[in-house]
Amino acid sequence: MKPIIYLxxxxxxxxxxxxxxPNDLTVSYPLYxxxxxxxxxxxxxxxxxxxxxxxxxxALYYESDLSKAGFKVEKDGFVVKRENxxxxxxxxxxxxxxxxxxxxxxxxxxxxxxxxxxxNYIRFAxxxxxxxxxxxxxxxxxxxxxRILMTYKGLDEPLGDIVEQQLPETTARNGxxxxxWGGSEIMD
Length: 188
What we know:
By secondary structure, the chain is of the alpha+beta class. It has three helices and 13 strands; from the N terminus they run E-E-E-E-E-E-E-E-H-H-E-H-E-E-E-E.
């Protein structure tokens, strides 16, 4: 799981972000404090100031070990041909609530991995799966939270028995908004 977290408060806000399974972290930037989490000054523009290092950031990043998460090819999802991966992601990410910048960063990160295969099975984890995989606590509590986790498996040929996944309605951004996107390759 390789998520990035954006914070968009309505005014400059002191924010603490705590991951529920810090022992599963393999990488973080800025360095995650396993005792207190990340502590940042978040600005409405999305700019962050890490209060530990003083560094200016635009997001928080972490990777975690998903070996116990149990993601697998399900009955629903999307089978996407290599040359359609970018346009498919543009469509799905807009429906899931990412703005154009967030979607572009998602696509830039994941498209090279998806391009390694002729086809990809793609499924977006639901909120319960994401919260079970990596609980997230933010103070102050955001008014809107958008969490997206794409799981994928590279394929040589399309799977014929996959039902198109029904994505949730786009979440409207109101008040202090937190957006997290990430992904993970299905290893089974």
